[in-house]
């Protein structure tokens, strides 16, 4: 998205009664952010399409593990919980934060819940710790501590986070489409990943991905409105035709099959089944505290990186600060609480929000649209499985490339930032973790300032954060000392 597109003159694309437009204008400041109803709707739909996979993926991740009693979660219940939490929190973000940011069960964090916490406690106790995580983050947001931390991080490091996330979501798109795969024997080779399944591209699913990617590139180059959404839609139709008409398989997690039943009743069986403090008894006080610390740190900085990068891409940041940041952080923290109460794992701002921004989303109206579509999946869950990764992944690759363009704003000549920026941008995709990249960059930045005798420039807050991240990276070793 070029600056010219962002600042293009506003033209109302959806005519309507004056009182209706004025109400939307009052709620979402469309003209002030140089957007239109049409752009926001397109952006909201695009974000939903890009992240709808979470409705299917989250039940698979949480359902792949059993708790300490051997109990497993019902796929139908987790699906309902995932859609419900995403719908409520995304609409809330639109109305309260007025930002084009969608929330859903966080990838990576749900893995912590499923594979690290659940084997040591019951599901109710695990979701109880998730609620406590949300309470901690909300308290930090209400007190202003969270916003102070975000504002204390230097602008070049924030830009590096945007670049790292761009590389991250592009890699996620390439991997989810099967364009890039992990080497099975990567421990014995110098190449951990490769092109396609065996070093070559083959199969119709890859053709669908390449077709969708090339179509999206061409449409965006020609500045066609709705380029991302059009490309996803056309690629999905092609995938359905190949699967239903010619029996093509190998689609991975989501098969583009027309569902037998369009409507399915939601199952709210997990709602409210939480045990706030039982995990400390089941797993032990130290282990439960470590779990809680990991959840808070991951949720805090994953969201920080995503909010910063998506806001930058949308042109919302002013002097490195995002409007209504306090409200945005408050809603994000509440998302973790909602994730625990519903049984869907912590909800946080999704990187795929950048796909909607790429379609012109600039306000919370796009989030309201996305949230309402998630609400619709409560009844139309079978339709969520129609869009395969190969059709949606091109959006992640293209938007990721646009975010990497922020490299031009990094002062590479400044030795105080060169290595910290590189570590931040590189470790986010290499470790599949925003938190790891932010932590490594902050530690390196503070050490360089101290080493050059400029420790006052780092400040006590960043120095404290660097120490916290040092503990985070060494947490397994620290825990082992007390076993």
Automatic annotation (TrEMBL):
Range of residues in the leader sequence? none
Which key words are in the record?
Membrane, Transmembrane, Transmembrane helix, Transport
Q: What is this protein called?
A: NCS2 family permease
Q: Which Pfam families match?
A: Xan_ur_permease (PF00860)
What family is it from? Belongs to the nucleobase:cation symporter-2 (NCS2) (TC 2.A.40) family. Azg-like subfamily.
Q: What is the lineage of its organism?
A: Bacteria, Bacillati, Actinomycetota, Actinomycetes, Pseudonocardiales
- Fetch the PANTHER family from UniProt: XANTHINE/URACIL PERMEASE C887.17-RELATED (PTHR43337), XANTHINE_URACIL PERMEASE C887.17-RELATED (PTHR43337:SF1)
Q: What does the record say about its membrane topology?
A: Multi-pass membrane protein
Which InterPro entries does this entry report, sorted A to Z? Azg-like, NCS2
Q: Tell me what organism the protein belongs to.
A: Amycolatopsis mongoliensis
Q: Where in the cell is it found?
A: Endomembrane system
Task: Choose one Gene Ontology CC annotation of this protein and give it.
Answer: endomembrane system
A single MF term (Gene Ontology)? purine nucleobase transmembrane transporter activity
Which domain of life does this protein belong to? Bacteria
For this protein, the parts annotated as crossing the membrane are 41-62, 74-96, 101-118, 124-145, 157-181, 201-220, 227-246, 276-301, 372-399, 419-446, 458-475
Q: Which residues, by range, are in coiled-coil regions?
A: none
């Amino acid at each position: 998205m070029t600056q010219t597109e962002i600042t293009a003159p506003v033209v109302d694309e959806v005519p309507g009664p004056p009182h209706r437009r004025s109400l939307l204008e009052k709620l979402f400041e469309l003209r002030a952010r140089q957007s239109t109803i049409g752009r926001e709707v397109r952006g909201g739909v695009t974000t939903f399409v890009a992240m709808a996979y979470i409705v299917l993926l989250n039940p698979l991740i949480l359902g792949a593990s059993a708790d300490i009693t051997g109990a497993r979660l019902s796929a139908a219940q987790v699906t309902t919980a995932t859609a419900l939490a995403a719908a409520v929190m995304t609409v809330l973000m639109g109305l309260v934060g007025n930002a084009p940011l969608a929330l859903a069960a966080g990838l990576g964090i749900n893995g912590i819940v499923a594979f690290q916490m659940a084997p040591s406690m019951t599901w109710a106790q695990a979701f109880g710790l998730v609620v406590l995580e949300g309470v901690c983050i909300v308290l930090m947001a209400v007190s202003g501590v969270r916003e102070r931390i975000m504002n204390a991080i230097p602008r070049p490091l924030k830009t590096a986070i945007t670049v790292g996330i761009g590389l991250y979501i592009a890699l996620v798109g390439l991997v989810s489409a099967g364009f890039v795969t992990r080497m099975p024997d990567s421990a014995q080779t110098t190449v951990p990943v490769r092109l396609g399944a065996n070093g070559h591209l083959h199969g119709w699913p890859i053709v669908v991905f390449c077709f969708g990617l090339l179509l999206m590139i061409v449409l965006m180059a020609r500045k066609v409105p709705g380029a991302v959404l059009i490309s996803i839609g056309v690629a999905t139709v092609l995938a359905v035709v190949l699967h239903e008409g010619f029996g093509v398989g190998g689609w991975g997690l989501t098969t583009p099959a027309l569902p037998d039943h369009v409507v399915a009743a939601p199952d709210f069986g997990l709602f409210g089944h939480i045990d706030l403090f039982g995990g400390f008894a089941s797993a032990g006080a130290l282990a439960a505290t470590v779990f809680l610390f990991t959840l808070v740190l991951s949720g805090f900085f994953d969201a920080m990186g995503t909010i910063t990068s998506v806001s930058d891409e949308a042109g919302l940041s002013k002097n490195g600060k995002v409007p209504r940041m306090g409200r945005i952080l408050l809603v994000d923290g509440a998302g973790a609480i909602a994730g625990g109460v519903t049984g869907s794992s912590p909800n946080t701002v999704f990187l795929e929000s950048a796909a909607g921004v790429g379609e012109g989303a600039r306000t919370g109206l796009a989030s309201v649209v996305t949230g309402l579509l998630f609400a619709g999946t409560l009844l139309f869950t079978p339709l969520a499985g129609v869009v395969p990764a190969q059709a949606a992944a091109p959006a992640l690759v293209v938007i990721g490339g646009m975010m990497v363009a922020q490299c031009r704003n990094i002062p590479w000549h400044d030795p105080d930032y060169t290595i910290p920026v590189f570590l931040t941008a590189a470790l986010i995709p290499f470790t599949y973790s925003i938190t790891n990249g932010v932590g490594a960059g902050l530690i390196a930045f503070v050490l360089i300032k101290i080493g050059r005798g400029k420790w006052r420039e780092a400040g006590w807050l960043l120095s404290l954060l660097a120490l916290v991240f040092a503990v985070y990276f060494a947490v397994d070793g620290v825990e082992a000392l007390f076993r």
